[in-house]
Amino acid sequence: MNLFGWVTVVFIVFLGTGIVFMAIVYQEVRRMQRLLAEAIQGNRQVRFYSHLSLLHPIAEQVNILLQQLHIQESNKRRDDEQRRQFITAITHDLRTPLASVLGYLEAVHKGLTNPDKKDEYIETAYHKGLTLLNTLNRFFEWAKLDLHQEQIFPQTINLAETHREVLIEFLPGLEARGIQLIAEIPLVVNVTIDPETVARVIRNLIQNAIDHALDVTMIRVRLDVNKRQTLIEDNGKGKPEVDDDDIFEPFQRQRKSKGLGLGLAISRQLLRMQKGNLYAEPSEEGGLSFIIQWPSA
């Protein structure tokens, strides 16, 4: 075979190989196009792949983009659900005490009550008004956190002293309920944090144990110097299976609970804003333990 023949053969081989390769690329592109159409229609779980190394980088980048879209949409659905719960909770938790306050005041205003009961009705309306105000304050507190408008002013404080101040507030009420308070607080533990955050978080957790733990007779508060942690646990009937994600979701509350289901969510959010954290686990005492991780000094 002469030179021309060899050139012809080589040309035909290269041409055939090119045609086959282009056919394979076309099939891969068509398949990826179908997958892209499926993703556009809403299936963010679809994943791109290719048998051709040439298309691997494109498939990987598209998969990363789809994963980010899936996360954003999941976060949006979660936020929408939380706002729906927020509106529902406002409607329910404000209407009942407001109707009660108006009912008592209307009875006094229209003279529908005995004169000797007038002061009692006014006092009842006053206390229910305070409950309503506390509910509103808790809603606004969560709204500011949700909108990232909460102002914090970190400074170096003695955590131990703040613990003692808050625990003293609860002593009379705990004694009246027959609940023993065991405090294991050292003299000094210095951290840099917003002082109001410390007081709010400890109050929320102790109040949570009082309000939601069944048959609680003991609450222990232990501040660990080395770990910079505070353990708050009770011996009541807490959740035997603790779902760390669920228990700190806003508006999560037990059946027949009078709370709003915001205290734990607010506490964790406040701590995380300042490089701290809050998590829960079953207590060795049989109830529930909350562990506060304070920021580093």
From TrEMBL:
Chief site of localization: membrane
EC number(s) stated in the UniProt entry for this protein: 2.7.13.3
Substrates-to-products reaction catalysed: ATP + protein L-histidine = ADP + protein N-phospho-L-histidine
Annotated CDD domains: HATPase, HisKA
Localization per Swiss-Prot or TrEMBL: Membrane
Domain Histidine kinase span(s) in chain numbering: 89-297
A GO cellular component entry from the record: plasma membrane
GO molecular function: phosphoprotein phosphatase activity; phosphorelay sensor kinase activity
Residue ranges crossing the lipid bilayer per the database entry: 6-26
Protein name: histidine kinase
An example Gene Ontology biological process: cellular response to phosphate starvation
Pfam families the record matches: HATPase_c, HisKA
Entry keyword set: Kinase, Membrane, Phosphoprotein, Transferase, Transmembrane, Transmembrane helix, Two-component regulatory system
